[in-house]
Amino acid sequence: MTATGLEVFDKTLQITNTWLDEIMSDLGPDRHFAWHALGAVLRPLRDRLPPDLAAHLGAQLPLLVPASTTTNGTRRESRSGCGPSTSSCSGSAGNCAGPVRRMYET
After folding, report:
1. In whole angstroms, what is the distance from residue 85 CA to residue 81 CA?
2. What is the fold of 7-105?
3. Domain ranges of the chain
4. 3-state DSSP call for residue 74?
5. Fewest CB atoms within 10 A around its CB: which of 23, 43, 90, 100?
């Protein structure tokens, strides 16, 4: 028997815990802090991506993680987009998604 009774929940818990363990190995042993750090990285990334690419990214995440990137179940209205004026990513949306794609290739 599975821990939660549903295989899909067990898998998302396992993946999310693996991500949190990796974050904790860099930031320290506080799991709560690791969860907030994950959200602190994903929310700005989501806000800078075009809506369709952000939705695609959310679909790739474990079930628990997209919930950490929303505020009251919705995305933030204002979005800087991805382009030359954005300091952390330049060029097209494909350039912004490169680090995200690499994260999932491992």
Report:
1. 9
2. Globin-like (1.10.490)
3. 7-105
4. strand
5. 90
